[in-house]
Structures are given as C-alpha cells and as structure tokens.
Amino acid sequence: MHPDPIKCYLLPGANQVHALNVYYMVQVLHEKLTFLAFPALNPFCFFIAGFFSSLMGILKNMPFMILLLSNICSAYLIPGIVANLPRYLEIHFRKPAYIANIIAGMKLFLALLASLY
Fold first, then answer.
1. What DSSP assignment string belongs to the chain?
2. Labelling 54: which of 23, 35, 112, 117 has CA 20 to 30 A away?
3. Are residues 50 and 85 in the same domain?
4. What are phi and psi of 95, to 5 degrees?
5. How many domains does the chain have?
6. What is the dihedral of CA 31, 37, 38, 39, to 10 degrees?
7. Tens-place pLDDT, residues 27-65
8. Is 38 in contact with 49 (CB distance < 8 Å)?
9. How far is residue 7's CA from residue 15's CA, in Å, rounded to a whole number?
10. Same domain, 4 and 31
11. Tens digit of pLDDT for each residue in 70-98?
12. Are residues 45 and 94 in the same domain?
C-alpha cells in the first residue's frame, strides 16, 4: 500500500494543492458521514416523516374520505352509462341501432354542454 493514499493521486511537488485537496476531501467525507450517521439531519427523512403524517391525517378525516369515495363511484358510473345507453334504448324502446346511437350521442352532447355552464 502507498504510504499516503490521498497523495498518490496528486502531482508531485504540489504541496499547497495537496493541502487544499486533503482539506476538501476531509470536508466532503465528514459531510457524507454526517448525512449517513444522523438521518435526522437528512432532509429526505423530514420529507418522508411529513408525508406519512399528512397521509394519516387525510385518511382519518372521515368527511373527506366519504366525499372521495362518492366521487370515485360517480366517476365509474358515467362511463357505464355511456357504454350501455344505446343498447338500453334499442331493447327498451325498440329503436334501431343507428337511431339509438344518434339519441345517445345527442344526450351526451347536451350533457357536456350543460356541464360547461
């Protein structure tokens, strides 16, 4: 092994540069070890801890969760209506397929216009 493992990467005769490089390497090594040894100082740990505490606060909020569940259910309901409306019109009102599709298209277009205002 080389007597000075840090000095073996430097040019010979560069004493000032060597001293600065050693100082810089010690600082970087100290910062990395502090970052790993003390996770409380790690900003990512603050983010994770804050994220999970916020998530638990949201999950314990019952009115918000009920509102979220109702919005999810209504979001699944609309594509089902869109997909099955023409077939329902064909069977229930005995309309041909092209008429049922036209009626369903007009209804959906009017619903889209109504939702914009």
1. --S-TTGGGSPTT-HHHHHHHHHHHHHHHHHHHHHHH-GGG-HHHHHHHHHHHHHHHHHT-HHHHHHHHHHHHHHHHHHHHHHHHHHHHHHHH---HHHHHHHHHHHHHHHHHHHH-
2. 35
3. no
4. -100, 150
5. 2
6. 100
7. 666 666 555 555 555 566 667 777 888 888 999 999 999
8. no
9. 10
10. yes
11. 999 988 888 888 889 999 999 999 999 99
12. no
Which residue, chain included where needed, has tokens 């090594």? 29
Type of residue at 54: S
Q: Please give the single-letter amino acid code of residue 108.
A: L
The residue type found at 98 is Y
Q: Which two tokens stand for residue 50?
A: 């804050």
Burial profile 79-89: b = 16 or more Cβ within 10 angstroms, e = fewer: eeeeeebbeeb
Q: Is the pTM for the entire model greater than 0.70?
A: no
